[in-house]
Backbone:
């Protein structure tokens, strides 16, 4: 007879029953593994400000940390500063992105005798390493005076008695985790406030530095070339310090003009032409408070970068780059010339325009650099190496990169125009810089941040007709109020803990490219319209681009807003195969409402932290954030025919 | 030669079960539907982003499909089981062989249920097996959050899906026992399908909207339908997102459906003589 | 809702469509006949060897709604006795046979099989035997063989009913007559002491009919009590030990075939049957 006999049925039934008894053991086995603290280095870090973290690393003071084990994220989220964690863990966004917090661990200072030094920094006795304790069982001392550079911190203790004695010693109040969470403000708004004040501080510094350089161009004329000295070289040799060497209109063949004193080399305008011999750099500033202004420079050597002989094996790559990039030929070289300035100079160069090496507080203002027609032949418009400087109101045409920075932390690059080069602004190893209100046209990349910088500010720039609008690496970059339009790719959302607000990303081939591994970037209140592809996303888990109930404007979507609150009633997934076509292909709307797609969308919305890559906006806006900018761009999300 | 069976009701039950199992295997429509079910489940795993995210996202991706397709499969398997024996007169003949009602209904349920379990559990395991294949490799420089995702959650989900399938199968069996004509059976089966997949949820929503139902009562209302109970169990027990609602009501709901439906099937299979 | 008897008049005799009206008149007619024929227990008249009946039905009454199909009939069959139940379509033969097979319960009365009430198996061939499709004839009998306590020689049973060559044929590929023979085989599984056959010869060709009645005779010779209904009155007359004529819910005759024919003054059972139910036929139409 057949295989299926009552006897085999018995066996099969018994085996099946056994399988289900065994499978039902799964209800007894905990579905979740152990939840115990891990080394902070092994977490995905978020929260806090870069300044605090870096300063803490350098100076060795304590930043109380938190690590959160969420129910729906495969890694553990680490927060700099427990207050940030307290503010963030129970927001709808983190719940959406990561699930419920299963366990929160905070640094435990109960056994390491913490103290507060004169700066308000928290230090442990003999720099002992604190352990971890559960936040729900910890006591927190707030308002004790302990702080990190960006503000006061709460100090956690596993032992309530230890917390009280700390509070008795330093003042402040002891609260529990729930209270700390209640007290914590919106984590995003405090970050935005910090970023905005940092932007303002950078501008203020740049204004003061520029104003300080005004005096350099107000020095009395001591030497006039052609009258007091036969050549430019002779003039700068003979001029006394704190005076001006005046170069009347005319063409001067020069060979290595060296400013070794604090003098100012001033021309009559672009009719004063210094022409080098085509070898090496033309003008060198080697003294503090030296300056060049109102003239034009040409005849620069063709060497963009000089290979550094590998005499010393220990020389690492960035040092090589620094040496090589900093030693190429340039129209003007600043070398250790602190508080110096280049203003109103026009430079024609087959290599670099200006190289500022280790010249703190120097200013490049109102300069025009015409580089090589072919970017690969030329070199940088301005190279900043090692010190903080200002580059503003300048124009960079052709050549390779408009402004290239290397370890020039804190520099301000603003109100410049870059055209037809490789990169508009190119930062290497440069943190805490302000790149503001620059205009880039026809470059490969508008603004690119490389090599894991921290805390850069990229605001108000306008990049169009380029291959890529903006490409960041590193973390804690503030990307605000920029316009990326008509590029192949509008802006990249990559790196960690970056904040993207109020950008207009319009008419690009790909609007936004999400390529960060960890979902710690904030992307809200941007207008992302009229791009062929709204979002392209490959790496990392599903990211929620919503914060504090605010999302982005993706165009006029055919979705409902029943309560009229300016937010569409359902989450929008710009990277989804169906939603991506919403508002363009009529069929997409019908398909997007099919039970299967709805079911999948609903399921996907539930736990984005464990999803495959993609982007979801839980609160898509019905109205643009910057309608007048969009109107000026004439960028609207129109249905393709 | 066939060995006579002397195990009484239990022997009868397995004899009936084996016949049902063989019947199912030989019914092309049911086999086709099973294949469709299996392909759908695996396709959801492969096409959705769930499997790439882990077991829990896959569970959430699969819930709506399992909720719709499992009842369909269970009903297709069972809604005519008893009725076809009645229509052929075999129910009468079986009675002359002194087959008891519990043995008969139990055998039919066991046979059809085994087929259902194979298809549902097998398909889900196949879908679950895509997770390790499709998941991105874990970076070595980060600590993994072992609490976030686990195959245990998927196993729980699969067991619950089987329980859900068995509950709907029991109801379909009761339909087949109670119905006197094929038309009745189809009408009853379709009605129950709609009620389970849509009706009870809609009733709960309507009750909430009209204020006749407090939000506290929703878990109980949901537990009243196999679909609602299954969903509550998956969200509350398998993936532990619901958290707040007790799974007891939902579990009691599912088990209750099995018990009541089988009792109805036993009572309506035939009327005993003496 | 569990009661599906009301649908039975439709499936009972599918060749005709008895309507409730004629059945009602049949009942009236039978009332007139009750005086003529005393037909309660046939024990004393039969040639039964055993003092104990193999099956005994007592005072069976049944109605489908308002239609009374059985009105207090009793029937006792001895081991080895062949009782033929004849009567017009819709006269309640199938219903009575179902009661005897104990797959239905009458409104009133009881059926006893052998010594213990309600235990021993009665082999039963329904009027329209059906089988689950997809299984072979042998598979089908193997299936039923599992429900009896003895070992069953399935091949032997198939041989007995003339289906040895069709053992591996699927039941849904059998002809109507072969299906009926398989149903007979199924009724014989486990060698029951009582066999109830509802129209066993229907749809069989003449040769098969002869074979069927041969099997029935063999059964009786082996001591099996056989109750059958049939329209093939020729073989019935030759084979049956008793003929019971059911009309209007009552037995209008119950005797050995010769006696029935003689008492009706007819030449054969066919004619006698016509005479016996003529009143009903006339008044009915």
Residues:
């Amino acid at each position: 007879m057949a295989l299926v006999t009552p006897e085999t049925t018995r066996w099969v039934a018994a085996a099946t029953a056994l399988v289900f008894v065994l499978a039902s053991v799964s209800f007894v086995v905990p579905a979740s593994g152990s939840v115990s603290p891990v080394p902070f280095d092994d977490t995905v870090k978020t929260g806090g400000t870069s300044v605090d973290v870096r300063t803490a690393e350098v100076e060795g003071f304590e930043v109380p940390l938190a690590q959160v084990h969420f129910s729906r994220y495969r890694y553990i989220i680490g927060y700099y500063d427990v207050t940030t964690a307290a503010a963030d863990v129970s927001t709808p966004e983190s719940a959406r992105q990561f699930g419920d917090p299963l366990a929160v661990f905070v640094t435990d200072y109960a056994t390491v005798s913490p103290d507060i030094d004169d700066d308000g920094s928290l230090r442990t006795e003999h720099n002992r390493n604190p352990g971890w304790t559960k936040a729900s069982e910890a006591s927190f001392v707030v308002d004790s005076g302990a702080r990190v550079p960006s503000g006061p911190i709460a100090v956690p203790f596993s032992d309530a008695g230890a917390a009280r004695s700390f509070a008795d010693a330093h003042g402040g109040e002891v609260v529990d985790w729930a209270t700390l969470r209640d007290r914590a403000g919106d984590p995003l708004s405090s970050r935005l406030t910090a970023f905005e004040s940092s932007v303002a501080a950078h501008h203020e510094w740049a204004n003061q530095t520029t104003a300080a350089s005004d005096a350099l161009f107000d020095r009395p004329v001591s030497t006039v070339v052609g009258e007091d000295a036969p050549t430019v070289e002779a003039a700068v040799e003979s001029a006394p310090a704190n005076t001006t060497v005046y170069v009347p209109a005319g063409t001067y063949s020069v060979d290595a003009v060296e400013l070794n004193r604090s003098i100012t080399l001033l021309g009559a305008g672009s009719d004063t032409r210094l022409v080098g011999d085509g070898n090496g750099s033309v003008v060198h500033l080697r003294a503090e408070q030296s300056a060049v202004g109102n003239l034009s420079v040409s005849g620069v050597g063709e060497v963009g970068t000089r290979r550094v002989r590998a005499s010393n094996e220990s020389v690492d790559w960035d040092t090589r780059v620094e040496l090589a990039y900093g030693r190429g030929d340039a129209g003007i070289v600043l070398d250790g010339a602190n508080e110096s300035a280049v203003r109103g100079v026009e430079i024609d160069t087959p290599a670099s325009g200006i190289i500022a090496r280790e010249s703190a507080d120097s200013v490049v203002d109102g300069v025009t650099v015409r580089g090589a027609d072919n970017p690969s032949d030329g070199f940088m418009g301005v190279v900043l190496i090692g010190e903080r400087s200002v580059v503003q109101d300048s124009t960079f045409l052709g050549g390779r990169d408009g402004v290239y920075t290397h370890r020039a932390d804190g520099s301000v690059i603003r109100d410049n125009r870059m055209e037809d080069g490789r990169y508009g602004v190119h930062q290497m190893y440069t943190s805490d810089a302000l790149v503001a209100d620059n205009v880039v046209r026809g470059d490969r990349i508008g603004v690119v941040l490389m090599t894991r910088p921290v805390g850069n500010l990229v605001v108000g720039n306008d990049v169009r007709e380029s291959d890529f609008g903006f490409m960041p690496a590193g973390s804690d970059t503030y990307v605000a109020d920029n316009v990326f339009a008509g590029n192949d790719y509008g802006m990249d959302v990559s790196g960690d803990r970056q904040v993207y607000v109020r950008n207009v990303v319009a008419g690009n081939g790909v609007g936004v490219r999400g390529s960060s591994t960890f979902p710690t970037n904030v992307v809200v209140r941007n207008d992302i319209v009229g791009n062929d592809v709204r979002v392209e996303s490959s790496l990392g888990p599903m990211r929620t681009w919503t914060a504090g109930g605010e999302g982005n404007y993706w165009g006029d979507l055919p979705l409902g807003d029943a309560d009229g609150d300016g937010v569409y009633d359902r989450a929008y997934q710009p990277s989804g195969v169906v939603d991506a076509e919403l508002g363009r292909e009529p069929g997409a709307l019908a398909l997007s409402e099919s039970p299967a797609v709805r079911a999948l969308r609903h399921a996907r919305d539930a736990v984005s932290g464990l999803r495959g890559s993609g982007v979801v906006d839980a609160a898509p806006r019905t109205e643009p954030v910057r309608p007048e900018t969009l109107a000026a761009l004439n960028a609207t999300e129109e249905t393709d025919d | 030669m066939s060995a006579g069976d002397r195990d009484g009701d239990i022997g009868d039950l397995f004899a009936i079960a084996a016949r049902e199992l063989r019947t199912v295997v030989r019914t092309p429509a049911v086999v086709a539907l099973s294949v469709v079910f299996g392909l759908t489940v695996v396709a959801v795993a492969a096409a959705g982003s769930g499997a790439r995210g882990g077991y829990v996202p896959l569970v959430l991706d699969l819930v709506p499909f399992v909720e719709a397709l499992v009842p369909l499969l269970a009903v297709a398997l069972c809604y005519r089981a008893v009725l076809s024996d009645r229509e052929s007169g075999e129910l009468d003949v079986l009675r002359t062989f002194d087959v008891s009602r519990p043995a008969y209904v139990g055998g039919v349920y066991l046979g059809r249920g085994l087929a259902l379990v194979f298809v549902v559990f097998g398909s889900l395991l196949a879908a679950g097996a895509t997770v390790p294949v499709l998941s991105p490799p874990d970076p070595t420089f980060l600590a993994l959050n072992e609490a976030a995702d686990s195959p245990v959650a998927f196993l729980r989900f699969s067991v619950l899906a089987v329980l859900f399938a068995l509950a709907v199968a029991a109801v379909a069996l009761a339909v087949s026992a109670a119905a006197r004509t094929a038309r009745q059976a189809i009408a009853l089966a379709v009605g129950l399908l709609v009620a389970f997949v849509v009706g009870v949820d809609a009733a709960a929503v309507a009750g909430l909207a009209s204020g006749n139902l407090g939000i506290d009562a929703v878990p109980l209302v949901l537990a009243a339908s196999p679909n609602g109970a299954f969903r509550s169990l998956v969200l509350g027990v398998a993936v532990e997102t619901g958290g707040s609602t007790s799974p007891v009501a939902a579990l009691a709901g599912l088990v209750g459906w099995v018990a009541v439906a089988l009792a109805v099937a036993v009572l309506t299979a035939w009327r005993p003589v003496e | 809702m569990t009661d599906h008897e009301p649908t039975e008049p439709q499936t009972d005799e599918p060749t005709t469509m008895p309507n409730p009206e004629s059945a009602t008149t049949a009942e009236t007619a039978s009332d007139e006949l009750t005086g003529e024929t005393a037909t309660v227990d046939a024990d004393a008249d039969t040639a039964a060897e055993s003092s104990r009946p193999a099956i005994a039905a007592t005072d069976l009454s049944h109605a489908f709604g308002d239609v009374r199909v059985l009105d207090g009939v009793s029937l006792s069959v001895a081991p080895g006795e062949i009782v033929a139940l004849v009567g017009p379509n819709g006269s309640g033969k199938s219903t009575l046979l179902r009661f005897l097979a104990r797959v239905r319960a009458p409104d009133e009365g009881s059926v006893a099989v052998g010594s213990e009430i309600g235990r021993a198996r009665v082999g039963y061939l329904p009027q329209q035997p059906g089988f689950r499709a997809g299984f072979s004839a042998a598979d089908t009998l193997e299936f039923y063989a599992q429900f009896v306590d003895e070992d069953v020689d399935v091949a032997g049973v198939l041989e007995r009913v003339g289906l040895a060559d069709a053992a591996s044929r699927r039941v849904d590929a059998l002809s109507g007559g072969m299906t009926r023979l398989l149903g007979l085989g199924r009724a014989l599984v486990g060698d029951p002491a009582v066999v109830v056959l509802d129209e066993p010869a229907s749809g069989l060709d003449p040769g098969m009919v002869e074979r069927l009645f041969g099997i029935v005779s063999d059964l009786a010779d082996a001591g099996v009590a056989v109750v059958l209904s049939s329209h093939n009155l020729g073989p019935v007359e030759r084979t049956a030990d008793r003929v019971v004529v059911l009309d209007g819910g009552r037995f209008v005759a119950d005797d050995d075939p010769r006696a029935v024919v003689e008492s009706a003054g007819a030449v054969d059972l066919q004619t006698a049957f016509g005479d016996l139910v003529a009143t009903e036929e006339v008044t009915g139409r």
